Amino acid sequence: MNEQIPSKPPVIPSVAPDVHRPLWSVMIPTYNCSRYLAATLQSVLMQDPGPGLMQIEVVDDCSTDADVAALVATIGKGRVEFYRQPENCGSPRNFETCLNRARGKLIHLLHGDDMAGDGLYTATAALFEQYPEAGAVCTGYTYIDEDGNFVWPGNTLLPAPGIISNWLPTIATQQKLQPPAVVVKRAVYEHLGGFFGIHYGEDWEMWVRIAAHYPVAYTPQTLAAYRVHTNNITSRYFQSGQHIKDIKKVINIIQPYLPAQQQRQLKRTAQRNWSRYFARTSDMAYHKYNRPRQALEQALQAFWLHQNKVTVYFVFKMLLKVLIRYKQGAQR
After folding, report:
1. Which of 25, 72, 82, 235 lies deepest, with the highest CB count within 10 Å?
2. The domain containing residue 148 runs over which residues?
3. Taking the model in full, what pTM does it have?
4. 47, 72, 45, 46: which is closest to 59 by C-alpha?
5. 189: CATH
């Protein structure tokens, strides 16, 4: 593990034939999210079908905010396995460790600040049984805040459970999922490899890669919660501006996964969709994170990603806000 961000998909070997294979592996990668870990674990344990059917394991990337082993022991009471990395290796490598340590046939990679909704495991297992050709199952989800309160709903992809038609061109143009709402067969990771290339958007790349090789099933039931807070990777990358660079890279990475005759159109659509998203979230950089220069830079980067009415509007909006703020500061 000499690269914190693998340059190509890490190989995920198959499980040894003499190892017991439960149906489920709920793998919980953590790094300095101990404030939320108890709720994450409880959301899984309340649905626990027992160790014969479900592996539950926390894989910690050398957290410094708490004694994670002790927390897991207290909440898990011996039911939850724990592994600590020998040194901090970064989220893609921590995910790789999760996949390698998973013994189950179905893997739920549940980040340590997110939550599994009641019924997630029974509903997704039923969909895999109904659609054995599916490589992954995704569900409805919500966004929650630091205190677990509802913030806004996630995307609804179908009105009823089933295989998502035309999923590859849909997911290739913008992120439509969040990690806690996705369950993947371990055999799929063995075939395609693990997460690679970037820190922000590595999950989007994976969902596109899976869609290029397998059907994906979906239920609109709200069965997962993605937590929005200022200390997760998404928020930190929004503050640094790295998120736009990473998404540009993902857009290029996924092109070979797409039909040759659609690549140019889908790439432009992805650039347009992400540019609008980044332009709109420049407001968040300005108001929530109090970073006016970063907000303006984000709006400009969104404009250079794709020129459209939304990106033009936010460039001028952020420029005006920064100028007014500068003028007010000069007058004090």
Report:
1. 72
2. 24-227
3. 0.94
4. 72
5. 3.90.550.10
Angle, vertex CA 194, rays to CA 192 and CA 198, nearest 5: 120
What type of residue is 117? G
Mean pLDDT for each 10-residue chunk of the chain (332 residues)?
A: 84 97 98 97 98 98 98 98 97 97 98 98 98 98 96 96 98 97 98 96 97 98 93 59 92 98 98 96 84 91 96 95 79 64
Q: How far apart are the C-alpha atoms of 129 and 3, rounded to whole Å?
A: 38
Q: What is the DSSP track for 197-265?
A: S-SSSHHHHHHHHHHTTS-EEEEEEEEEEEEP-TTSHHHHHHHHTHHHHHHHHHHHHTGGGS-GGGHHH
Distance of CA 126 to the CA centre of its chain: 23
Whether residue 208 is found in the same domain as residue 295? no
Q: b vs e for 275-306, b when ≥16 Cβ sit within 10 Å of the residue's Cβ? A: bbbbbebbbebbeeeebbebbbbbbbbbbebb
Give domain status of residue 75, yes or no. yes
Which residue in this structure is represented by tokens 């489920």?
24
Q: Estimate the crossing angle of helix 263-287 against helix 242-253, to 10 degrees.
A: 170
